[in-house]
Amino acid sequence: MSDAPVIRADEPGSFPHGVLAARHPALIRTVLDAFPYGPDQRRALDALLTSATEGVMEPLGTEDDERWAAWGAREYLGRSWFEAPFLWSESYFYRHLLEAVGYFGPGAWQGIDPFRPFKLAELDSPETDGELAALDRLTEQPAEEQARALLHGSLWGNRADLGFRLSTPGATTPVSRLVVDDSASLWSLLPVDTICLVADNAGRELIPDLLLLDHLLHHGRARRAVLHVKVYPYYISDAMTADVLDAVRRLAGAQGAAADAGERLWAALADGRLEVRAHPFSCAPLPYADMPDDLRAEFAAADLTIFKGDLNYRRLVGDRLYSPTTRFADTTDWFPGPVAVLRTLKSDVIVGIDAATEAALVAAEGQRWRTSGTHALIQVGVK
Ligand SMILES: O=P(O)(O)OC[C@@]1(O)O[C@H](CO)[C@@H](O)[C@@H]1O
């Protein structure tokens, strides 16, 4: 195991401190504005707002406390949210938020995703219309060119995360060259029988993820695909099964090439070539290295697993302050199969870049490059 320090949020001015001190309160206010929640839910959200910024982490008071105990709660309950590992307190915050809005019931609000209005707004946005219309031109290109464009669409789609935009309003700064580009190695692993894609955000990220999977299935570069999503609403815009269905419907209801892809995806879901999985560990406050055996076996059975996004990156390599030149392979060698990541950089964790690249980024931006969302990478680990 690495001896790089686990990231915590206890240093004012640091990125994780800002997430807990500013992004979480902003999120609670946004959710309060988006729903006509009743007095009990509003009180619970107000209480969470105070607790999350000034209080300590408390039990949920439900049977889920047992699961969280198995995930380490005994060590952190009663302590400030800022003291626990960043990954742990962020995940626990989302679980508490769902408790406050009655997501797990009993009651009429059971199963109502507090983030759904924002996810749907993305699917209905003019930007999504534009991206779907562009597919008609893309299908006229050679298959190789289509594949490259769809991979990059899926990669940069990762900027479309609502949490990031809560604290980075107008995050439309131009994108830049990849800080690591192992895409040649990724393509060299195909074709495969089974590809797994561990999804990140719904809406404008999930659409290009689905288009990439459709392309791989349609062009025989994978026989089947397994799409891992979250088991409940998490990190604001993370995709769940309901979001996959919304996205496939959005595609199928579009025109031209987008509609063709939507229909193929619908058929692939129906005949099992595309399977959606939502494992309880998907919302665990732990790195994937700690995943349970059944999930490990699922990844082991895939010929290639692609992890999308910043949070999955943190959970794959470990949420630690590594030296950026630490080898990617050294942080992922425990993974039970070939693994790739498509990620825009939105938190402090980074491994696998060379010293010259790091020096150039620091010279140009200080440490902002780690969190600004304007840089991205494609990394691949094969044993
Ligand atoms: O996983 P995603 O959607 O790419 O990013 C999630 C994120 O916005 O949330 C975390 C902070 O709350 C950071 O890891 C990251 O910046």
Automatic annotation (TrEMBL):
Q: Which cofactor(s) does the record list?
A: Mn(2+)
Tell me the keywords, alphabetical order. Hydrolase, Manganese, Metal-binding
Give the Pfam families listed for this entry: ARMT1-like_dom
User: What residues does the Damage-control phosphatase ARMT1-like metal-binding domain cover?
Assistant: 21-356
Record field: catalytic activity: beta-D-fructose 6-phosphate = dihydroxyacetone + D-glyceraldehyde 3-phosphate; beta-D-fructose 1-phosphate + H2O = D-fructose + phosphate
Q: What SUPFAM superfamilies does the annotation carry?
A: AF1104-like
Sequence similarity: Belongs to the damage-control phosphatase family. Sugar phosphate phosphatase III subfamily.
Q: What is this protein called?
A: Damage-control phosphatase ARMT1 family protein
Organismal lineage: Bacteria, Bacillati, Actinomycetota, Actinomycetes, Kitasatosporales
